[in-house]
TrEMBL record:
It comes from Novosphingobium panipatense. Pathway: Energy metabolism; oxidative phosphorylation. It catalyses: 4 Fe(II)-[cytochrome c] + O2 + 8 H(+)(in) = 4 Fe(III)-[cytochrome c] + 2 H2O + 4 H(+)(out). Its EC number is 7.1.1.9. This is cytochrome-c oxidase.
Amino acid sequence: MSLHDQDDPALRAAQEKRLRAVWEPPKGLFLRWTDTNNNQIGVWYVLTAFGFMLFAGVLALIMRTQLAVPENDLVTPGTFNQLFTLHGSVMMFLFAVPMFEAVSIILLPQLLGARDLPFPRLSAFGYWSFLLGGLFVSGSIFFDAAPDGGWFMYPPLTTRTDLSGLGADIWMLGLSFIEVSSVAAAVELIVGVLKCRPPGMRLNLMPLYAWYILVVAVMILFAFPPLIAGDILFEMERLLDWPFFDASRGGDPLLWQHLFWIFGHPEVYIVFLPSIALFAMLVPTFARRHLLGYPWIVLAAVGTAFLSFGLWVHHMFTTGLPKISLAFFSAASEAVAIPTAVQIFVFIITLWAGRVVWSTPLLYATGSLAIFVIGGLTGVMVAVAPFDWQAHDTYFVVAHLHYVLIGGTLMPLFAGLYYYWPLVTGKKLSDRLGRTAFWLLFVGANLCFFPMHLSGLEGMPRRVFTYPEELGLGGLNLASTIGSFIIASGVAVIVLDLCRSPWRPKAARNPWQAGTLEWLAKPEDENWGVRSIPLIESRYPIWDQEDFVRKVDEGRFFLPDAEEGRRETIVTSVLDARPVAVIRLGSPSWLPMLTALALGGVFILTTYHFYWLALVSSFATLGLVLTWLWVGTAETPEKPCKPIGHGLELPLYISGSAAPGWWAMFITMMADATAFSGLVFGYYFFWTRHEDFPPEGMDFAPGLFWPMAALALGMATWVATVAAREVHARGGVNIARALVAGAIVLALAGIFAGLAGPWLSGMDPAAHSYPAIVWVLALWTSIHSGIAAIMLAYVLARSLAGRMTPRHDAEIRNVTVYAHFFALTAVVTYLTIGLFPEVA
């Protein structure tokens, strides 16, 4: 297809008609639930996360009303505990993280000039998992069954079933389900940024929003899995009485704090960096110039992410840590202010050097920076251990946290809302209502939370449902309560503005005169995204590339048509964005929703101890996943190549490290390995904390023979899988099938050998933390051995059905990636429990 062909208006009209037919969502509300277009999923995500925010806000208003005056009896102590537990949990798990994922799912395809992200069905699965888990956790308060141990759920008060009810299980299992959704979204976003950029968009030309989302999604891979590992240990103690946190049986409640805060402090930056990413998009627009210091802000974002994983212990300064630990983590906590300040100063300098056009989004951005800086300064204060000893568990920390979260997350999201609403709906929001809401939010936030610094320094403890009048804190608490209702009135004005939006006239295309790709969208609803996928030569192509918008609209770039009636986009190389292939994307399907419902059943039924039904639900989940993979992935195309314009032809099938599926498997296994490292951390934490680990005089060791036998079988499974991949690629299909069959047998034998050691040694996991953690590691690795067997059986079935050939071999290549990580898991597990440490 040449440029001359694109001059034909009739041809362009026919191409647009085919695009509309392919990308038009299903008709009817019920059928639209099956749509897997990321734009559609993203809108649902945003609305749902916003709804959870409003719910958590109502809970906060009830709490503040209870604390408005001393010795109030509006709610009972138990109800208050449920309120503050759900408020924190919903805001962090059901609003802050899902909202950034939702916004990214909407914006990234348009920012990258892609028709969609590579796994739209995975996004749909993530959304349904998030919705179901969120309703399960949030709805518990209406049945007086909500968790009441705080959003941190510290043992032993929460692990002892006689001290905590069903709410602890609802929190743990419900939020574990939601964490699956977060990891699924991270996989989608990472692969999208790395593989779906338009031709020419090298890494140093990516929009800063894409850089930030890439950094944050990678952070999720390393932050959320340790909490999942902690959840596993937590529920095993509650459901099976395995004493990981029971000090009387060799456990340690501090292990939970470590695993939680390894997640909990990076979590603050996981919700902060995407909000800063919105600033990185709107500041250049309203400064009317390129953002200054592009390399520095990328390095600062990466540096913030890196340092955020070295700060978690500053939440534990009062637990009796050695002085060397206090010094190290205090210094790291101070150091993170440096890359954070770099980002803020880059925005200020860009505005200083530009020709600023004041607007409602920019008002929110500047106001949020002011609030965030106050929170950052108090953060530097609590990072100093002696000060933290005084302020810990007081309202000073509550004030610091909310200044950071309101200035670093909530207000920036409202800035992005007013900035990107014309992109999503084609309508602008009201400047008058937006500015009114801003001043209500700004004044309310400061009135609500600034007095908490003072009340905290005067001794007001956190997490109390009332306080005596003699403390003299009634005035400060009343001021905070009034401020909270002013915040609520600001949010109410924004909701009113959103409700009035459908009756407003259409906005002009690119109403802010921005320079980045997302503003190629027209006010009309075009579900396919850009008219043609452009060639990128600048960070702000709308500003810098001549006739750029016209050429895109006329289909003068790549993939201007949907000739075969399929949803398609281009994938490119990771570093320099060279076109690699055209991939077919998932069409509307029930499978993501049904899979999420089945997996949700596993978590929910386990919560209520319906173990047999949970087992049935797990088999249903497995069946649905295999069906999803069989019918919806690794499709053999009807032809090898497809013209994309300008004389270029790209393959319709790729496998190996060039393919999005390979990257998805690699990234998923990184998350899996991180969760496993959390369990291994638990093993060595016990060993370093307790001199009697393993306990003296108790022959709990699983022996040497069975762990080494399991290790040998695991390594043999890996060797057979790698050999099958290589032989298959060289045309030895039958030999490869035999190797795969042998690998299945080896993997199944590995399950028996892995469990035989602790089983035949008579290790009672309820007796002591040592046999308990050994059993956990053995079970984890054996389950992964079983998953390897299932994956290999799937590969064998695909080969026997003629769906996998030496040319079309994505299945065996992706399973080999899993085999690499499984082999690493087997090595670490069996060397640890078999050789180290030796029992006295």
